[in-house]
Amino acid sequence: MNELRDLLTRLVDVEPRVTASDMLEAAEQRARQLRVRRTRRRFVAAGTVAAVIAAIVIVVASAADRGHEARIAVEPAPSPTTGTPAVAPTQQYSVDATVLQDPTHGPELCFAVATSLPPQCKGTPIAGWDWRKVDREESVNGTTWGEFHIVGTYDGTAITITQPATAAHTPPPVKLPSYKTPCPTPSGGWTVVDRSKYSIDAYNAFANAARSQPDAAGLWLDSATPVDGKTDLFPAQVINVAFTGDLDARRAELRALWGGPFCVVHHDRSMHELELIVQTLNGEVGRDLGLQNRSASIDEVNDDIRFDAMVATPAAQTALDRRYGAGVVHLHGLLTPVP
């Protein structure tokens, strides 16, 4: 455990107001609780061991700090909206997900499963399901579950099977944001200019200052761009920060706190603006559009929002574009229409 604590101390690629010690304690506490896995969706941070470990801790530390979903591609627990779903009852959909039945409910389609033994979930009822007609299911203490490829209709409350279920398909690779530094490389490359301000404490001060600005619009690390001629673990990475206001003023404020390389860029929308949009998506806007949502997550790199709903229709996407602007909210359906 001491080795893990030391490693986390070196890999502070996380929300700034959480120290390495805080993250470790939160991770240890979380490990004693039910862990939640996202069925057939894998969110991986920037392509280094440091970023992967940091991303695991972000799920615990950032949620406790901010009170909602983490900054990049991390989902909250399912919270379907009410309202009339914008679906065609005869349209067929396909999906790869977990089907689970326990003593408290019949077969349900689940996108979030608590990995206890037996696992637990609360999802969408499935009509016409027959465990005798599928393979590779597991059963423990009255709970039966498995991962399947399902085709059926959806009426807004339940899925009705229209074809025999088969083994779940291998999901396509998840396209990640590019964490590459958007600023041009300085002459001589990215370098450390003041090693007296090149520590975890200095980084925390830098990140806190960046996050606390009213025009703060994002913060991410680029682990692929060389610093002093080589790529290494944190803090030898280029920090990228985005704002909607005066970039020169922000750059001077942050340079006084951090001696390592960083890039300051403009975004059109602040984090506060995006967070307000997420609130409306999870509230009145989602209800009005009949979107039974599963999650909304903010992408700090691309300055936009991914919104996952059971069914995503072109009409709903057009309505979101009209309300928030084209390209601000990207609507994704968990159920895929079958042509």
Secondary-structure map with pairings?
Blueprint: H1 2-10, H2 20-31, E1 36-38, H3 49-66, E2 92-102, E3 105-110, E4 112-114, E5 124-127, E6 138-140, E7 143-154, E8 159-161, E9 166-167, H4 200-212, E10 216-222, E11 238-243, H5 247-255, E12 262-266, H6 271-281, H7 284-288, E13 293-299, E14 304-309, H8 314-324, E15 329-333, E16 336-337
Parallel strand pairs: 5-8, 11-12, 14-15
Antiparallel strand pairs: 1-4, 2-3, 2-7, 2-16, 3-5, 6-7, 7-8, 7-9, 10-11, 13-14
Helix pairs in contact: 1-2, 2-3
Key attributes of the depicted protein:
339 residues, alpha+beta, 5-stranded mixed beta barrel, 3-stranded mixed β-sheet, 8 helices, 25% strand, elongated
> In which order are the strands of the major sheet placed?
2-3-5-8-7
Q: Round the Cα radius of gyration to an integer and report it.
A: 22 Å
Q: How much strand?
A: 25-35%
Q: Could you give the order of the helices and strands? A: HHEHEEEEEEEEHEEHEHHEEHEE
Q: Given the structure, what is the number of helices?
A: 8
What does it look like?
With 339 residues, this protein is of the alpha+beta class. Among the domains are: 2-66, no CATH class; 92-167; 195-266. Helices cover 26% and strands 25% of the residues. It has eight helices and 16 strands. The protein has helices at residues 2-10, 20-31, 49-66, 200-212, 247-255, 271-281, 284-288, 314-324, and strands at 36-38, 92-102, 105-110, 112-114, 124-127, 138-140, 143-154, 159-161, 166-167, 216-222, 238-243, 262-266, 293-299, 304-309, 329-333, 336-337. Strands 2-3-5-8-7 form a five-stranded mixed barrel. It has a three-stranded mixed beta sheet with strand order 10-11-12, covered by helices on one side. A three-stranded mixed beta sheet has the order 13-14-15. The termini are far apart. Mean pLDDT is 79; it is low at 1-82.
